[in-house]
């Protein structure tokens, strides 16, 4: 019998092309990816030994009979093994990350094992094939088993894809169901035309589909830098932690890269990124480098000593302080570096990611160049921050924030005429939380905006309540974060809350800090002017902390300026500071503004601010922040 093996020869070429490009994609050695190479190996063996066996059987006079037996036997093993390999790949894909794929493969390999035993005893029973002394080939009565095993595993792959269809992405599901069908159809054609060998072609078609749609490096590689992307990085991280291998993770984050894009354009910015990526590729060898984010790169170093890590970080820091050049454009692009170690820093992927991002954030907050290492202590801070965010979100959703009020006394009348509303979390799963801890977190996450609206609503209700029993009460000061002025509808929301509460507008005084005034001058000015028209008053908080000056205050429609406690405290020990406070008070009075002194805690400080003619005094000497009912009882009797 003579066979046509042209299709198999062409398939072998295609197979080598797939192998060449797949090896360049640097796939993570996950179970699915290892099984992809198992599919390739099985297909390569099946095609290679098929071609070799066919050549030996066609020219027995040039072959050794025993060697022909051996090559043909390997071919018979490899052919149905292809079906099993593709079925295992389907299992690994469908059950990826669930941990039970290996157990399924173990039990479903039984048909393949029985067939393997049949092939191994075939030289003695000749049930599959027989080669006589002259080199003639004869099919045995159980030859159909070879195709049957292949069909069983292909059908099983289709069944798994169908049964698990709800747990698998629709595109992946279609691919997993399509390639076994194509393979089966090709094998059916071969059975109709026995002299045309197509078994390897069937497997190559399946492998080509898998590679193009599931394994192609475009799915795992960043298009701009050619580096493995964040998805591949997370897979590798998961794999390394599962294997409990020690490693160090270094993330390099470019500082303010948006400035580069704004200055040179997006296209040139991309070229700068490629230049940086090319440098990191060379510096990273032999370690793994990934594009972690838009302007961030991750370096995964396995089994590296502290000294080696120190050298890597020092070389990265030194290079990032030097300029980068693209054509005629040149600029320095500084970077922040974060470091975590497994298992010293954390033992699960989520904690490692949280740790590295926190370390990078700390590095960015620092003005100096260098790296931040996230150890156990920093990781505790990360976890606590995450817990506080959850607490803030739950309080926000349930509207259960506590608002305390600190009465403020008039220096002229001796009466408590106003109060400041202060956000508090006296009870939480972590115990009492203090503003200096949770307010910055609320601002970083943007939660502060909705919290402020809730505080304003509660404040309005408190004003209405106290005004019924104390008509002389002038109102409450409410603190506004700088994040509020990024809201397009801020003025509408504020007016809506005050109006719906039925609270007089002139009993609300909004406090803003000097930094807000400096950073958002136009937005703050427009908001203040609109509020002033409605009767809402504005106050500048923390004056004297070094952000603004008298000129910036003059341009804003302010009612009150609150002197920071540091000015009052400094005046107790410095004549120059005391003279400055007196002068500032006089200037603001001449501008038609009230002056409030905060942080008054001693009688000496109280005498000083009174002598300066300061209008309002706030501090523990007179009243501490109180819960609503306590503040109500305090203020109603005055």
From TrEMBL:
Gene3D superfamilies: 3.30.70.270, EAL domain. Residues 385-638 form the EAL domain. PROSITE patterns: EAL (PS50883), GGDEF (PS50887). The chain crosses the membrane at residues 5-22, 34-57, 69-92, 104-122, 142-163, 175-190. The keyword Ribonucleoprotein does not apply. Keywords: Membrane, Transmembrane, Transmembrane helix. SUPFAM superfamilies: EAL domain-like, Nucleotide cyclase. InterPro entries: Cyclic-di-GMP_PDE-like, EAL_dom, EAL_sf, GGDEF_dom, Nucleotide_cyclase, Rev_trsase/Diguanyl_cyclase. Residues 245-376 form the GGDEF domain. One of its GO terms (molecular function) is cyclic-guanylate-specific phosphodiesterase activity. Pfam families: EAL, GGDEF. This is Bifunctional diguanylate cyclase/phosphodiesterase. It comes from Hominibacterium faecale. The lineage of its organism: Bacteria, Bacillati, Bacillota, Clostridia, Peptostreptococcales.
């Amino acid at each position: 019998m003579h066979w046509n093996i042209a299709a198999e020869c062409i398939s072998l070429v295609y197979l080598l092309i797939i192998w060449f490009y797949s090896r360049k994609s640097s796939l993570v050695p996950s179970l699915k990816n290892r099984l992809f190479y198992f599919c390739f190996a099985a297909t390569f063996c099946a095609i290679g030994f098929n071609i070799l066996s066919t050549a030996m059987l066609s020219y027995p006079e040039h072959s050794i009979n025993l060697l022909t037996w051996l090559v043909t036997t390997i071919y018979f093993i490899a052919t149905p093994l292809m079906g099993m390999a593709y079925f295992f790949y389907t299992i690994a894909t469908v059950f990826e990350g669930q941990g039970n794929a290996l157990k399924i493969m173990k039990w479903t390999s039984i048909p393949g094992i029985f067939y393997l035993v049949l092939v191994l005893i075939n030289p003695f029973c000749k049930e599959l094939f027989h080669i006589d002394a002259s080199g003639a080939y004869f099919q045995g009565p159980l030859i159909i088993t070879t195709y049957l095993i292949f069909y069983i595993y292909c059908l099983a792959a289709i069944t798994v894809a169908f049964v698990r269809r709800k747990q698998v992405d629709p595109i992946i599901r279609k691919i997993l169901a399509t390639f076994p069908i194509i393979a089966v159809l090709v094998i059916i054609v071969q059975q109709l035309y026995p002299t045309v060998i197509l078994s390897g072609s069937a497997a190559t078609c399946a492998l080509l589909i898998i590679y193009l749609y599931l394994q192609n490096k475009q799915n795992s590689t960043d298009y701009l830098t050619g580096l493995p992307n964040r998805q591949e990085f997370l897979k590798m991280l998961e794999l390394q932690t599962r294997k409990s291998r020690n490693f160090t993770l270094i993330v390099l984050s470019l500082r303010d890269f948006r400035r580069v894009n704004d200055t040179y354009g997006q296209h040139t910015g991309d070229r700068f990124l490629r230049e940086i990526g090319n440098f990191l590729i060379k510096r990273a060898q032999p370690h793994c480098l990934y594009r972690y984010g838009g302007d961030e790169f991750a370096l995964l170093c396995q089994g590296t000593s502290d000294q080696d890590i120190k050298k890597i970080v020092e070389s990265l820091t030194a290079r990032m302080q030097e300029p980068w050049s693209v054509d005629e454009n040149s600029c320095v692009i500084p970077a922040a570096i974060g470091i975590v170690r497994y298992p010293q820093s954390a033992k699960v992927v989520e904690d490692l990611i949280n740790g590295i991002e926190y370390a990078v954030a700390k590095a960015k907050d620092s003005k100096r160049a260098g790296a931040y290492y996230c150890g156990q202590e920093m990781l505790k801070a990360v976890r606590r921050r995450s817990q506080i965010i959850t607490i803030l979100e739950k309080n926000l959703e349930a509207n259960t924030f506590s608002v305390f009020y600190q009465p403020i006394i008039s220096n002229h009348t001796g009466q408590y005429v106003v109060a400041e509303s202060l956000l508090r979390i006296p009870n939480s799963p972590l115990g009492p939380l203090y503003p200096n801890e949770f307010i910055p977190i609320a601002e970083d996450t943007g939660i502060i905006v909705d919290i402020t609206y809730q505080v304003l609503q509660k404040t309005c209700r408190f004003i209405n309540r106290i005004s019924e029993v104390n008509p002389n009460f002038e109102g409450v000061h409410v603190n506004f974060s700088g994040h509020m002025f990024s809201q397009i509808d801020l003025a509408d929301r504020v007016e809506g809350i005050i109006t719906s509460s039925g609270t007089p507008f002139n009993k609300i005084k909004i406090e803003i800090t000097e930094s807000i005034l400096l950073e958002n001058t136009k937005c703050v000015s427009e908001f203040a002017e609109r509020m002033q028209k409605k009767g809402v008053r504005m106050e500048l908080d923390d004056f004297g902390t070094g952000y603004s000056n008298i000129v910036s205050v003059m341009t804003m429609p302010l009612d009150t300026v609150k002197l920071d406690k540091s000015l009052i405290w400094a005046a107790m020990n410095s004549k120059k500071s005391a003279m400055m406070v007196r002068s500032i008070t006089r200037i603001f009075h001449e501008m038609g503004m009230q002056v409030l002194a905060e942080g008054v805690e001693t009688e000496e400080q109280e005498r000083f601010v009174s002598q300066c003619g300061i209008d309002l005094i706030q501090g523990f000497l007179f009243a501490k922040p109180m819960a609503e009912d306590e503040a109500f009882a305090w203020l109603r009797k005055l």
